């Protein structure tokens, strides 16, 4: 799959000396949903702002659809729709006029049918003649998305799009994101709701202290870094682990009636079959067992805690 965004050697150091981005290399594929995760202050918004041409890089390059974001800004920016975190709107303007005006800013001819589709997709049609000052916070965020889609961009950036949005609105937004991906739009999102990234994203990038520490297909990331646990209910309680099992990642719980085995699915010689064979050889008989595995949130927390060179 071809890249629609190419970032090479990107650095951003502010006048204060803060190195917000440190040698970022990243390619985002056409038509994918890419989740950019990181703690507050990690550089997510700076990276998005730089790709969108809002923040000028200290060094490095960004190309969107083959256009350099600095030397060919107008062509590159025309391919991008941006939904910022902040609810910045003209309070006295109507929804229809606000979205239509945004389309005109990109030199697009009027297309009432397209604006109508966008507003209906975002459940804003009944509010089309309402002034923005009368809308709830969730509705205002929908208007920001409608503005970003008004000029039919190929790339849509969603910077914390569901912050402060109730569950029903959030569900509608993600349904829209899926439909956009089906039409070939590339979607890049940051979110504090990591379960959304786990549900929606094709690939995940993790940024911390200005460094992109990992980019991976979501399924592959969870396969490689996810830990699994096997929990066994025991017929007879154990006072301690039998000899020969002390070196295995086993933990007793619930008064010795529960045994938990934590393992890495990547490593040979580990896994459910291996541990059951060892336990059977030691005369330990489980009455029940179940397995669990790490969520994307577990993986994210472990990544940002680890030191990176």
UniProtKB/TrEMBL annotation:
Highest taxon listed in the record's lineage: Bacteria
InterPro entries hit by this protein: AAA+_ATPase, ABC_transporter-like_ATP-bd, ABC_transporter-like_CS, ABC_transporter_ATP-binding, P-loop_NTPase
Endpoints of the signal sequence: none
Listed GO MF terms: ATP binding; ATP hydrolysis activity
The entry's keywords: ATP-binding, Cell membrane, Membrane, Nucleotide-binding, Transport
Xref: SUPFAM superfamilies: P-loop containing nucleoside triphosphate hydrolases
This protein's name: Multidrug ABC transporter ATP-binding protein
């Amino acid at each position: 799959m071809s890249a629609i965004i190419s970032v090479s050697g990107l650095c951003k150091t502010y006048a204060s000396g803060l190195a917000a981005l440190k040698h970022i290399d990243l390619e985002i594929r056409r038509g994918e949903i890419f989740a950019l995760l990181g703690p507050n202050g990690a550089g997510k918004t700076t990276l998005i702002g730089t790709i969108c041409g809002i923040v000028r890089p200290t060094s490095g390059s960004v190309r969107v659809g083959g256009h350099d974001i600095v030397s060919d800004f107008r062509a590159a920016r025309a391919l991008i729709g941006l939904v910022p975190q902040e609810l910045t709107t003209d309070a006295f303007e109507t929804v229809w006029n606000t979205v239509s005006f945004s389309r005109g800013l990109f030199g697009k001819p009027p297309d009432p049918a397209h604006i109508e589709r966008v507003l209906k997709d975002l459940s804003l049609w009944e509010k089309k003649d309402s002034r923005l000052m009368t809308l709830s916070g969730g509705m205002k965020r929908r208007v920001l998305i409608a503005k970003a889609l008004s000029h039919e961009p190929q790339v849509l950036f969603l910077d914390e799009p569901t912050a402060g949005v109730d569950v029903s609105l959030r569900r509608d937004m993600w349904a829209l994101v899926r439909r956009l991906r089906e039409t070939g739009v590339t979607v890049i999102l940051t979110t504090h709701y990591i379960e959304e990234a786990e549900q929606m994203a094709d690939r995940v990038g993790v940024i911390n202290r200005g460094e992109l520490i990992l980019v991976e297909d979501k399924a592959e990331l969870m396969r490689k870094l996810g830990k699994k646990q096997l929990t066994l209910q025991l017929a007879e309680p154990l006072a301690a682990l039998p000899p020969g099992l002390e070196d295995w990642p086993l933990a007793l719980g619930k008064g010795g009636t529960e045994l938990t085995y934590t393992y890495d699915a990547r490593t040979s010689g580990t896994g459910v079959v291996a541990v059951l064979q060892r336990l059977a050889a030691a005369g330990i008989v489980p009455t029940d067992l179940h397995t669990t595995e790490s969520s994307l949130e577990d993986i994210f927390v472990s990544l940002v805690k680890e030191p990176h060179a």
